[in-house]
Design brief:
The structure is a single chain. The chain has eleven helices and ten strands. The chain is an alpha+beta fold. The protein has three domains: 115 residues, Acyl-CoA dehydrogenase/oxidase, N-terminal domain (Butyryl-Coa Dehydrogenase, subunit A, domain 1), CATH 1.10.540; 109 residues, Butyryl-CoA Dehydrogenase, subunit A, domain 2 (Beta Barrel), CATH 2.40.110.10; 146 residues, Butyryl-CoA Dehydrogenase, subunit A, domain 3 (Up-down Bundle). The model has no long low-confidence stretch (mean pLDDT 97).
């Protein structure tokens, strides 16, 4: 396993860091308070910089990079703002990734350049109100009528559900509970019958839009089917393997941000005539945070290395997502404790890391689902 930092990766990290410091940090609390998703940030800055097409081959307008560079990108964004990191991750690995892996040549040429450049923002719609982890009971249907498919139903908890320009949706085209009874479709914004619904008022990740996507007799042409009819569930599970690396990277970035803030504060804050970093109660917290963060990164890099090599990494990506997300919550909780009363205020960054981190143990498969995936792999 080889994942040492190359000079090219160092350049990418610095470029992303500079852009995020300039365009995100000065605005992040305003966006969080108002639940404003800064679409212009993605279209004017992140798209042209290559951050919205990290994994997309150059022939389709992307950066043509691998999963290590992708993880680097997510980490650098999330260590400043988890909300923006979440949106970058969802756009890249879910919507764009699904088209990249399962679209035909015509579909890739049609949609990937727009998504990679930031001209279009992507969404991926699998979850429904009554079918979170139980995706095979989905109620959204697609019925064939001539050369069109007619979609009806509502998807919930969809990142960019209102603001996206293209939605990859998994709908039931066969019998309930049939794993080969679901199909993936691309629906472009402006298609009659497609609309955004309720926007969620969330604890954290407030600058990343989460909303319903509603389909009401939404007619799309048969050329918008991704892959084969009936293969949507299998495709979604493969997309989620990569998506777990994305959320693991998001978790890692938040945890690193919390540690950065804690180290800096512990050196500045004085009690009893010396910086609190001199007290073992604080320094041991920092040691535990740093060790768990390092272990998280090693798991993530292992899964990324396997993904780059085209190897099956269901267990490894689940392990990375499970452990990194739990560490993110742990590190941000400890950061609030280190800051004391100040950590409970919005004048310092750790309360936002604390709120943002919890989503990482829920989104794209809860920690409990990750343990189910891991145990099944171990017991194979």
């Amino acid at each position: 396993m080889e994942f040492s930092t190359t000079e090219n990766r160092q350049m990418i990290v610095q470029a992303v860091r500079d852009l995020v410091e300039r365009e995100v940090r000065p605005n992040l609390m305003e966006w969080d308070e108002s639940q404003h998703m800064p679409i212009d940030l993605f279209k004017k800055h992140f798209g042209p910089s290559g951050m919205l097409g990290v994994l997309v081959p150059e022939e389709y307008g992307g950066a043509g990079l691998g999963y290590h560079e992708y993880v680097d990108t997510i980490v650098e964004v999330a260590r400043v703002c988890g909300s923006i990191g979440l949106s970058v991750a969802a756009h890249n690995s879910l919507c764009t990734g699904h088209i990249m892996y399962f679209g035909n040549e015509e579909q890739k040429k049609r949609w990937l350049p727009k998504l990679a450049s930031g001209e279009w923002l992507g969404a991926w719609a699998l979850t429904e109100a009554g079918t979170g982890s139980d995706a095979m009971r989905m109620a959204t249907t697609a019925k064939k009528e001539g050369k069109e498919w007619v979609l009806n139903g509502t998807k919930n908890w969809i990142t960019h559900g209102i603001s996206s320009d293209a939605v990859v949706v998994i709908a039931r085209t066969g019998e309930l509970l049939d794993s080969k009874g679901m199909t993936a479709f691309v629906v472009e914004r402006g298609t009659p019958g497609l609309k955004g619904g309720k926007k969620e008022n969330k604890l954290g990740m407030r600058a990343s839009e989460t909303a319903e996507v509603i389909f009401e007799n939404c007619r799309i042409p048969e050329e918008n089917v991704l892959g084969e009819v009936g293969q949507g569930f299998q495709q979604a599970m493969k997309v989620l393997d990569g998506g777990r690396i994305s959320i693991a990277a998001l978790s890692l970035g938040i945890a690193k941000g919390a540690l950065d803030a804690s180290v800096a504060y512990s050196k500045e804050r004085h009690q009893f005539g010396k910086p609190i970093s001199d007290f073992q109660a604080i320094s041991f917290k920092l040691a535990d945070m740093a060790t768990r963060i390092e272990a998280s990164e090693l798991l993530i890099r292992q899964a990324s290395d396997m993904k780059n090599k085209g190897q099956r990494m269901t267990k490894e990506s689940a392990m990375a997502k499970y452990y990194a997300s739990e560490v993110s919550v742990y590190a941000s909780t400890e950061a609030v404790q280190i800051f004391g009363g100040y950590g409970y205020t919005k004048d310092y960054p750790v309360e936002k890391f604390y709120r943002d981190s919890k989503l990482c143990t829920i989104g794209e498969g809860t920690s409990e689902i990750q343990k189910l995936v891991i145990s099944r792999e171990v017991l194979r």
